[in-house]
Amino acid sequence: MMPAMSSELRVARVESLRVEHITPARRAALSPALTAIVRERFDVERPEVIADYVVFRQPPATLDLLYNHRDQLIGFIASNLQEITVEGHQYTIFDAGMYVRAGVRGLGWLTYQRAISEPLRYKLRHRKRRVVFVSAMLTPISYHRGCGWPGLHPHADRKTPAQVEAVVRHAAHARGYQVVGNDPWQVNIGFRVTPRDPERLQRAIAAARDRHIEHYLQLNPSYLEGDWLMTYAPLDLKTIAQAICWSLPRQLLQAAKQRLGKR
């Protein structure tokens, strides 16, 4: 029988906030706890930038606060939308990052729900707008978790179109990232962020190692030195539906395992 997950490490409630509507007093109250959650997992060269860069992103942005059953903050999801123009075409770029305390589990469906809901609402309001996901990933594990998303690039099993690379380059430039060498996928985000427990990360990588992990390591071998890998995925209505169909069976299986663990 699987061990039961501590309720201290399980998300019981999500509070969704629009960043542009957060008062200065609420922001000041939230910043220390949210910054501490990031620093629990990562060493950050300039901790003072965490609030502005990681947590309270440029609007339009959403901040989802994750609480346990005691109403204690155990993590957050920060996301935002950005408009760019590439070769005469307008794109809306969606980006999101999740940060949780060590030991928090069972986040799979919550992650996909939040990743899907914001761009889906936007796409339904702006059906003709090109909406894509472009995000930087620091570790092979985070990349590995997203490899099942339809149309993800870079990917070990498919060649990346030139137009996709152009969008990634423009998005990186708009965020102030520096491309490492001539590869548009490997970037430096402007300040050094490294995993706080590289040995534990290496064990997780060894356990999950497959062609996707190998592909990440080929593209971004210096991730332990603070370099990130850019990723891209389309967010049209067809792709979002495919992503739901891909992720739902896995999340139902995960939920069943958790229920068995409670017995």
Mean pLDDT: 88
Shape: globular
Gyration radius over CA: 18 Å
**Total count of domains:** 1
Q: Tell me the distance between the termini.
A: 8 Å
User: What is the ordering of alpha helices and beta strands?
Assistant: EHEHEEEHEHHEEEHHEH
Structural class: alpha+beta
| Strands, total number | 10
Which regions have little confidence, pLDDT < 50, spanning 5+ residues?
1-5
Percent of residues in helices comes to 40-55%
Give the strand content.
15-25%
Strand order of the largest sheet: 1-3-4-5-6-10-8-7
Sheet of most strands? 8 strands, mixed
Helical region count?
Answer: 8
Short description:
The protein has helices at residues 24-41, 50-55, 108-125, 140-145, 162-174, 198-208, 211-219, 237-262, and strands spanning 13-18, 42-44, 61-67, 73-86, 89-100, 130-137, 178-179, 186-188, 193-195, 228-234. It is α+β, with helices and mostly antiparallel strands.
Verbal overview:
This protein is of the alpha+beta class and 263 residues long. The protein has one domain (78-262). 41% of the residues lie in helices and 25% in strands. It has an eight-stranded mixed β-sheet. The relative contact order is 0.15.
Key phrases:
263 residues, alpha+beta, 10 strands, 25% strand
Set down the secondary structure blueprint:
Layout: E1 13-18, H1 24-41, E2 42-44, H2 50-55, E3 61-67, E4 73-86, E5 89-100, H3 108-125, E6 130-137, H4 140-145, H5 162-174, E7 178-179, E8 186-188, E9 193-195, H6 198-208, H7 211-219, E10 228-234, H8 237-262
Parallel strand pairs: 5-6
Antiparallel strand pairs: 1-3, 2-9, 3-4, 4-5, 6-10, 7-8, 8-10
Helix pairs in contact: 3-8
